[in-house]
Amino acid sequence: MDTSPEPRLILLCGLPGSGKTTLAKRLAEEIPAVRLCPDEWLAALGVDLFDEPARDRLERRFWHHTQDLLRLGQTVILEFGFWGRAERDEKRVAARALGVPVELHYLAVPMDELHRRLEARNRKEAPGTVPISHELLEKYVNVFQAPDADELRLFDAPTGAK
């Protein structure tokens, strides 16, 4: 008898410094799941993390790969940030069409904490990260569409992780 959990799509939504990668790594180990993080891949390939055309191409390729993995019964975690409602809706509807539950983990972190985390991260200069200034974070906040309670109810409840 197969006791493996059913495949799920897990979307991580939040601004830089909100803890998406930390959560994704923990979930990937606990569930287990395939974790796809554009920042890490771009850095590993020597591509500027601010190269939007390259990021868009990589995220499209990741999405095709994700659908294949879901069809094969594998849970996938996407660390795209999912700043826009339309992108979250698109992934939810497409995964559900494959018969797969979809989780949205929204990491809402107060601005002062985001600034503190990003300052610490900027000092470390860790691979796969880029410095995010206060000014850049403020610009990001202005385009970020946080999911509201109605949208969050459209997603499945998290399962499988401790």
What do these coordinates show?
- This protein has one domain (9-152): 3-Layer(aba) Sandwich (Rossmann fold), CATH 3.40.50.300.
- The protein is 49% helix and 12% strand.
- It has helices spanning 20-30, 38-44, 52-71, 85-97, 111-124, 134-143, 149-152; strands spanning 9-13, 34-36, 76-81, 102-106.
- A 4-stranded parallel beta sheet has the order 2-3-1-4, sandwiched between helices.
- It is globular, with a radius of gyration of 16 Å.
- The relative contact order is 0.23.
- This is ATP-binding protein.
- Keywords: ATP-binding, Nucleotide-binding.
In short:
This protein has helices at 20-30, 38-44, 52-71, 85-97, 111-124, 134-143, 149-152, and strands spanning 9-13, 34-36, 76-81, 102-106. The protein is of the alpha/beta class and 162 residues long. The chain has a 4-stranded parallel β-sheet, with helices on both faces.
List keywords for this structure.
alpha/beta; Rossmann fold; four-stranded parallel beta sheet; 7 helices; 4 strands; globular; ATP-binding protein; P-loop_ATP/GTP-bd_All4644_prd; ATP-binding; nucleotide-binding
Question: What secondary-structure arrangement, pairings included, does this model have?
Answer:
Blueprint: E1 9-13, H1 20-30, E2 34-36, H2 38-44, H3 52-71, E3 76-81, H4 85-97, E4 102-106, H5 111-124, H6 134-143, H7 149-152
Parallel strand pairs: 1-3, 1-4, 2-3
